[in-house]
Amino acid sequence: MNDLMTKSFMSYVDLKKEAMKDLEAGPDPDVEMANASNTMDSNLGLFLEEAETVKKEMGSIREILDQLQQANEESKSLHKPEALKSLRNKINTDIVTVQKKARSIKSQLEEMDRANAANRRLSGLQGRNSDLQNKDCRY
Fold this sequence. Notes:
Layout: H1 2-25, H2 29-77, H3 81-123, H4 131-134
Helix pairs in contact: 2-3
């Protein structure tokens, strides 16, 4: 019986020593990977939020383009100069609005690309070619 208690006590002491060595050695790589994964998940969440705002902006551009098409059809049937002039002014303001939104979307997409490149450098994926890098993307 004394033998059993001695062995169990010795195994407990050995386990405790190993645990102390592990603590002194530094953090566990699995824990570091979990932290990196959490950071990547939050970065991905931010990226997806930005992508969703870009989609909404593109949807608003589509709506304005539909209005422009309707205004164009309406302009074909107008004969009064005042009505034609006001419709032309509305069309011009809609075109300027679409241009501003398109520039805004372009800058947002470029910023997302820069952030993606920075995240790739930080995560060590710089050397890997992705499909996006291989395609000739023009905005």
